[in-house]
Amino acid sequence: MHLRLADTERLLELARDFMPRYGAKIKKLVLVWWTIDDLSDLCYRSDTPSNSQLEALEASERFTGLRAVSDQPLQRVFDARDALIATILQACTKLLHFKVVDRMTTRTLEFKKGSKITISSSRTKNALQELGSRISSVDFSSADLFFGYHSATASRYLDIFANVEHLSVRVDDDKPSALDLQELLRKLPCVKTNVSLELDNISSSAIGTLSGWPCSNLTQLTLSEMPSLQVTELANILKVHPITSLCLRDLSIAGFQLPPSLSAPRPGSIKVKNLSIAGRTDGALLDLFDGAPLKHVELCARRSGRNSARFSSQRIKAFIKKHCASLLTFKADRLFFDAAELSAINRALEQEGVPVRVITVK
To answer: Would you give the end-to-end CA distance of the chain in angstroms?
Structure first.
């Protein structure tokens, strides 16, 4: 079930009429928290709700037993929707999968008359705490402010989901504390199966923490917007975690040569099976994965900014031949090859008995 906080009447109808009968049947819930678009669509931004909106607000307060603690109608709206979401969650007695989608940029809003409104989620979080031990799959990867995008805040919320089996986390900090990230990594082993970790624009000290704190169930990793990332740092991360799916986005790893200690990685030391690369990277980055059991490879182009130089036909053919025992698909953005090059690569692979072909995608 998908929930959006943008409609008080709809939330009231769900909480009051639908959930008592059907709440126990809901296994997966996607909660779309407040977004910028939702807030811009509020027709009562001047603190003057229409009669129908006011009626829905008052009915919601009566239904949830919420006492108005503010004389600002808009603050009451935010508090009422928080209470309604909490009521809906409490009815999901067999909930297994939970995801939050949150694209806000602030917790406090200032309106035309100078009034400030605080967006609260305390009741929703309390309801989650009650059900947390039942939930087996949690996706924080799109949650910025609901859970807090700092790694310290994310680690605190892991305590709620004691029996989670699959976890997706996104950490997006300009200067995250290495100790905070270490605390998050320390708690990840409590996840019973797979962990998907997304790191966006984090500091070099945090990268060092990631490579120095092994997590036995970190199997999926996405790294984005890290212009200072060094190939040795990436190699160290891949050696200490059993990462099978790696996604590199908007990086700027260029003009490097692999150190002798990494030029021929020990088979089995890097376990990546699914590899996706986008950004300015040197073709030599592919050499880092010589000993990896690659199955699916994707070379993506950025639609804005600078891309990698065009990969030579010889390098691509050699790479595919090297991994032909395990490789199933090789996809590349059509910006990297023209039609003649692509045809020549695939013809050569066919002649040499290699079953894999290069497929171009937009």
So the answer is: 32
CB count within 10 Å of CB 265 equals 19
Helix boundaries (H) for the chain: 8-13, 19-22, 36-40, 51-64, 73-91, 122-131, 151-158, 178-187, 204-212, 231-240, 260-263, 313-322, 339-351
H/E stretch holding 278 reads: strand 274-281
pTM (two decimals)? 0.72
3-state secondary structure of 167: strand
Pairing of strands 296-300, 329-333: parallel
Which amino acid is it at 347?
A: R
Condensed to tens digits (0 to 9), the pLDDT of residues 208-224 reads 888 888 888 889 998 88
- Picking from 272, 271, 285, 225, the residue whose alpha carbon sits closest to that of residue 246 is 272
State which amino acid sits at residue 65: G
CA–CA dist 263, 290 (Å, integer): 9
CA 226, CA 252: separation in Å to the nearest integer?
Answer: 7
CA distance 113 to 75: 14
User: Whole-angstrom Cα distance, residue 294 to residue 290?
Assistant: 9
For residue 276, the cross-strand partners are 247, 298
Q: How many CA atoms are closer than 13 Å to the CA of 46, on its beta-carbon side?
A: 3
Give the tens place of pLDDT for each residue, 173-191: 555 556 667 777 777 776 7
Q: Using CA atoms, how far apart are residues 141 and 167, in angstroms rounded to an integer?
A: 9
Rounded to the nearest 5 degrees, what angle is found at the Cα of 9, between the Cα atoms of 115 and 144? 60
Query: Whole-angstrom Cα distance, residue 353 to residue 151?
Result: 48
Say how many CA atoms lie within 13 Å of 338 toward its Cβ.
Answer: 1
Q: What is the DSSP letter of 267?
A: T
Render the burial of 286-318: b for 16+ CB within 10 Å, e for the rest: bbbbbbbbbeebbbbbeeeeebbeebebeebbe
Rounded Cα distance between 288 and 253, Å, is: 13
CB 320 within 8 A of CB 328: no
